[in-house]
Write a structure and sequence with these properties.
With 93 residues, the chain is mostly helical. The chain is built from four helices and no strands. The longest helix has 25 residues.
């Protein structure tokens, strides 16, 4: 096996793993809410659950809206970085 192909494959695998961990972690709010509701002493609290808690439990909608805008900005920066910085070429042999 060509060492260059191994390096490309391992780099691709690590980038995909990091992308999945970062972007899919924002989709786990329903599991967290059903199972632990933040866990003991907020040990398993996520940002989306924190936003939900501020908006609907503490009725602090201004703070929750601000956190939502910050979250969307972070996700937009990650998506744009992935789109522009990573190589999109397809190699056929």
């Amino acid at each position: 096996m060509n060492p260059d192909n191994t390096l490309v494959f391992s780099t691709f695998f690590i980038v995909q793993l990091l992308k999945d961990l970062l972007l899919n972690s924002f989709k786990l709010v329903d599991h967290l809410f059903v199972l632990t509701k933040g866990g003991p002493n907020n040990a398993s609290n996520l940002l989306l659950y924190y936003i939900y808690e501020n908006a609907f439990s503490y009725f602090d909608t201004n703070y929750a809206a601000t956190l939502t805008v910050v979250l969307l900005a972070i996700l937009a920066v990650v998506a744009l970085a992935q789109f522009f910085l990573f190589d999109r070429r397809i190699h056929y042999r």
